[in-house]
Amino acid sequence: MLLAKKIVVSGAVQGVGFRPFVYNIAQQLGVVGEVYNDSAGVVIFVQCTHTQFKQFLFRLKSNTPALATITKIKTKDCQIEKYLDFSIAQSRSGEVATRVLPDASICDDCIDDITDKNNRRYGYPFTNCTHCGPRFSIIKKIPYDRKFTSMACFTMCEKCQQEYQNPNDRRFHAQPNACSNCGPQLQLTNSKGQDIATDKIIAKTATLLKQGKIIAIKGIGGFHLACLADINSAVAMLRKRKHRKHKPFALMAKDLKMVQKYCQVSKAEEVLLSSSVAPIVLLTIKNNTLSSQVAPKQKKLGFMLPYSPLHYLLLQQFDTPLVLTSGNQSHYPQIIDNQQALQELGGIADYFLLHNRDIVNRLDDSVVQVCAENTRLIRRARGYAPTALPFPNGFEEYQGLLAVGAELKNTFCLFTRTNAIVSQHIGDLKTLESYQDFMHNIALYQRLYMTNIQRLACDLHPDYLSSKYADNYAQTNNIKLSTVQHHHAHIAACLFEHGKAIDSEKVLGVVWDGIGLGADNSLWGGEFLLVDYLSFNRLAHFEYTPLLGGDKAQSEPWRMAYMYLKQHKIAADTCFSGKPTAEFDALLKSNLPLNYTSSVGRLFDAVAYLLGICTEKISYEAQAAIELENMANECLTTKRQTAYEFELKKAKNHTHIDIKKLWVAILKDLKNKVKNQDIAYRFHLSLAELLVKTVLQLQQSYTFDTVVLSGGVFHNQLILKLVSELFESIGNITLLTHSKLPCGDGSISLGQSAICIARERKYEQQ
Ligand SMILES: [Zn+2]
Ligand SMILES: [Zn+2]
Fold first, then answer.
1. Which residues lie at CB < 5 A from ion ligand 1?
2. Please, what are the domains in the chain?
3. Could you tell me whether strands 41-48 and 32-38 are parallel, antiparallel, or unpaired per DSSP bridges?
4. Which ligand is nearest to the CA of 130?
5. Closest CA to 431 of 365, 547, 335, 557
6. Would you say the C-alpha torsion 745, 749, 752, 754 has a positive or negative sign?
7. ipTM value
8. 14 C-alpha to center of ligand 1: Å?
9. What is the pLDDT at residue 223?
10. Could you say which of 29, 537, 555, 625 is the most buried, measured as most Cβ atoms within 10 Å of its Cβ?
11. Alpha helices in 292-374, H assignment, sequence order
12. What is the pLDDT of residue 576?
């Protein structure tokens, strides 16, 4: 008997060669019907026998194309039509539930093409296929068709067109398909934008780099600034011109073997480096023979492998890695436009390697590290965004929520009926360009997911630019806006990541970070909260310390060190000679209102200062804490070290963590000339023990069996490792940490969304 069935496949199924995959199955089985894309995903009509249909479904689920992920397959009976064969039909639009794919690193087949002298794409730096190439960085709207991407202005030549139309070709419906006859082209210019005449642009670029020149290179998600990593004068010049004193530069190596020459690479790290995401992976240094200017005072180097054909072809020319740092002036976002690059990077780069395929959406390189076999994201952007997160139970079918995230390390989050999408890392909204990028992307995501904003969520902090944006948007459009406390959002994000249902049990959230506005108007950052999606109860926190000097309290670590010691009446004036401490003393004596903080991030800064780290000011975010962790890792006698003491003091409704004893002990160690590395290690051990002991103490009065760690402090691998080991030895507590989003403020927007929906649904039920 003949069956007629409609099959709807959802997930990441467009632009990945899914229709030819379906076409080929149909051909093999002799099934008639058609397949096309619509906004719900891939729609298939088949007419066949029952046995054929079973086989069809089986093959559909196995051997799916490399970049495809199926989340759902729905089938239903339908009318028999007059199909004579199986065909691929025109895309149709309709309800939007499909996914926009992230950009994918060049695949092995395309590498073969560009390195084979007899292939027509030999040496062509914009080669791609359905298994690789640019996606999100070139898309303007959906459906994902060439005409809605920045490839629209390139008309395919006859040969490319044939590939594009041939269901048996790897480039069938590869939207950015191109060759040297019809596709984007490179251009090499000097710093004034004047053409450098050569017919071998990549070879010429390599020669210039070998001469120690700095070159701005247009990539997939933005411009990079490049120089050879073993030419000290070039790397030093790049630092000088970019006004970037210490923050480490990322590196690109030709292949895995080259990375292994400089760093230890575990199996998990190898997989990440070679994945289609191709992120920057932070790796422990084995043998650093590169310029000392690449990553001063670091124990790790950030390596990535060539992810575009252009990078691949260029890197083949070198025996050492290339410094590849984001193409921008310090504190600004990466530049994506040719003209803007020439204008703004002209003072930094000697030459420009440009091309004429527009970057529509800016995407930084993603940054990850592997800790205890888990991937930890530090910056989630190219290759990851805009991958959707699955809905835990209870969050489905919520249409049109926008959560605008924090102000630094901003991301926003859009909930559509079927997807929770966290944007790529946007950065510090206080720079105009990032703020514009924030607005551009909010508009873009609404277009891509055909979702109108009907509900907004933002941080409790009214002065965050993201909060101001949301407030303004809410008022203009008469939409309801919910405010969410920063640290509550951190924990909710981690719960969501782990698929915890909307009505799941309370957990103990430990959030240690820089600063977030608390419910009592203080600046929180060392918190133990009993949390579910709906609410939180602050059970314990680090004692409050005055935070003087606004932003300077963050950029000049001595200020916090001084305040901690002053607070505990510990005399240590010799540690602050030459610092304007009299100003502080006057402020403290005056009756002016002060800001107070419980931040653990600031505590790290203060301890770092006493150990001689960043004694003037930091030159990049978290520098003092990172260098303190590096110092602790130099401790050779970890087994012999013991933790410093602290006290838990009962206050009215909650517990204060008093660390006076820790300060006294550190100063005593300093006086006794204990090695700085040992003190740094003891400090890390102390915080890990403090965390676990506080949790155990709280467990005596409150019911929870899961502890969730969040906040930027947990980028610190040593703390994370020590805490995990301690909990493991105790045994009856489940520990949850982030692995799909960063533990820093990049996760805030997801948490805001989850809390907002939980509140609304709770009230709906009542
Ligand atoms: Zn490919
Ligand atoms: Zn062509």
1. 107, 110, 129, 131-132
2. 3-88 (3.30.70.100), 221-348+358-368 (3.90.870.10), 507-747 (3.30.420.40)
3. antiparallel
4. 1
5. 335
6. negative
7. 0.98
8. 15
9. 98
10. 625
11. 309-315, 338-345
12. 93
Tokens of 22: 């379906």
Pairing status of strand 480-484 against strand 655-658: unpaired
Kindly report the backbone phi and psi dihedral angles of residue 502, in degrees, each rounded to the nearest multiple of 5, phi listed first: -60, -30
Calculate how far, in angstroms, residue 296's C-alpha sits from the geometric centre of ligand 1: 37
Q: How far is residue 364 CA from its own chain's centroid? A: 9
Ligand in closest contact with the CA of 157: 2
DSSP assignment string, 69-120: EEEEEEEEE------SSEEEPPP---S----PPPPBPPPHHHHHHHH-TTST
Within 8 A by CB and 6+ apart from 505, the residues are 532, 704, 705, 706
Q: Locate 635 and state its tokens.
A: 């401790």
pLDDT at 764 over 70: no
Report the alpha-carbon distance of residue 357 to residue 753 in Å, rounded: 35
Q: HEC states along 689-742? A: HHHHHHHHHHHCCCCCCEEEEECHHHHCHHHHHHHHHHHHHHCCCEEECCCCCC
What's the 163 CA to ligand 2 centre distance in angstroms? 9
Task: Report in angstroms the alpha-carbon separations of 339 from 186, 218, 354.
Answer: 15, 12, 10
Tell how far the Cα of 518 is from the centroid of ligand 2, in angstroms.
58
Which residues are within 5 Å of ligand 2 (an ion), measured at CB?
157, 160, 179, 181-182
For residue 113, the ligand closest to its alpha carbon is 1
Summarize pLDDT for 345-359 with one digit per residue, the tens: 999 999 999 999 999
The least confident of 273-277, 398-402, 655-659 is: 398-402
Q: Which ligand is nearest to the CA of 174?
A: 1
The C-alpha atoms of residue 124 and residue 113 are separated, in whole angstroms, by 9
Quick check: 91 pLDDT over 80?
Answer: no
Listed in sequence order, the residues at least 6 apart from 563 whose beta carbon sits closer than 8 Å to its beta carbon are 545, 546, 547, 548, 584, 606
DSSP 152-197: TTSPP-HHHHHHHH-TTSTTTT-TT---TTTS--EEEEETTS-B--
* Residue 258 · residue 362 · CB < 8 Å: no
What mean pLDDT is predicted for residues 141-149? 86
CA 327 – ligand 2 centroid, Å: 30
Confidence at residue 93, expressed as pLDDT on a 0 to 100 scale = 66
Contacts of 627 (CB under 8 A, 6+ apart): 297, 608, 613, 614
Encode 331-351: b = buried (16+ Cβ within 10 Å), e = exposed.
Answer: ebbbbbebeebbebbeebbbb
Are 357 and 138 a contacting pair, CB within 8 Å?
yes
What does the alpha-carbon distance between residue 524 and residue 407 come to, in Å, rounded to a whole number? 16
DSSP symbol at 657? E
Element at 42 (helix H, strand E): strand 41-48
**CA–CA separation, 390 and 388 (whole Å):** 7
pLDDT for position 95: 47
d(CA 718, CA 604) in angstroms, rounded, equals 13
Query: Tens digit of pLDDT for each residue in 199-229?
Result: 999 999 999 999 999 999 999 999 999 999 9
Least-confidence region, from 63-77, 92-106, 392-406: 92-106
CB 679 within 8 A of CB 612: no
The rounded Å distance from CA 173 to ligand 1 centre is 13
> For residue 16, how far is its CA from the centre of ligand 2 (angstroms)?
20
Decide if 171 contacts 163 (C-beta within 8 A).
yes
Tens of pLDDT, residues 372-381 = 778 999 999 9
Strands 250-252 and 300-304: parallel
CA 160 – ligand 2 centroid, Å: 4
Nearest bound ligand to the CA of residue 312: 1
| Spacing, Cα 110 to ligand 2 middle (Å) | 15
> SS3 string of 364-393?
CCCEEEEECCEEEEEECCCCCCCCEECCCC
Q: Which residues of 642-655 are buried (b: 16+ CB within 10 A; e: fewer)?
A: ebbebeeeeeeeeb
